């Protein structure tokens, strides 16, 4: 992975020199795209794509090995009654439960993602953050979701945030892809979302991710629009494609399809793939399965027809 080397003043000049975001315009465009309808003939494709980009997630203090095994079973066979339903992209868990997910998913092609770097606050020493990453990878994670130090970012210490991402990227090496969580609900402005997106990509992020899911607001369409514009422009200027993960608050099939439309219309078709776009969620999967069954049978199944995700 190639990162861009900056001195503190160069990094600040670059980030502060990025064009400002027109909040009203971003909200209007996101709102307009959210009204786009999907033809019935394309809806099955859209639902299947939405299932395939889900990072099925549980990040609770009450998580147990049994819960992780059940979640992995659902990841492998989302709809027990329909073997044609696609598998999800990944399971996302805490580092101490990675070994359980890795054992359950071995050979399936489903990724094992782990949050790290003192998730969700990011408030610890770099030494502890890197130990967190090493533990997750040693246990079998092939994706790491790190959180940035939002306090440092908001204080204007971009170099500290940049250096930490570089250090985590180096620790991941070839063993794991790195998703950098911006926690956009704490960044306050869309200008900051754009700056944080570029900072993370310049430091070597494979994905930029909206949220931990622990802070409100989490993923929103305007925020994701700004991040998609950033990855599109970054590829054009630097020749490297970076993925986007929207996480937190996406609970219905209708919401998921809105995000797919946003991806297609903003970044382009190249990002309509689990390698480049993810949705972090738990309860969303059941609604996607309900809508998928409705297309086939003409009637809705109750939510209890499917196994509980969380």
Automatic annotation (TrEMBL):
Mind listing the UniProt keywords for this protein, alphabetically?
Lyase, Schiff base
Q: Where is the signal peptide?
A: none
Biological pathway: Carbohydrate degradation; 2-deoxy-D-ribose 1-phosphate degradation; D-glyceraldehyde 3-phosphate and acetaldehyde from 2-deoxy-alpha-D-ribose 1-phosphate: step 2/2
Q: Does the keyword Lipid metabolism apply?
A: no
Q: What is this protein called?
A: Deoxyribose-phosphate aldolase
Pfam families listed in its UniProt record: DeoC
Which GO molecular function terms does the record list?
Answer: deoxyribose-phosphate aldolase activity
Decide whether keyword GTP-binding is in the record. no
Q: Which SMART domains did the record assign? A: DeoC (SM01133)
What does the sequence similarity comment in the record state about its family? Belongs to the DeoC/FbaB aldolase family. DeoC type 2 subfamily.
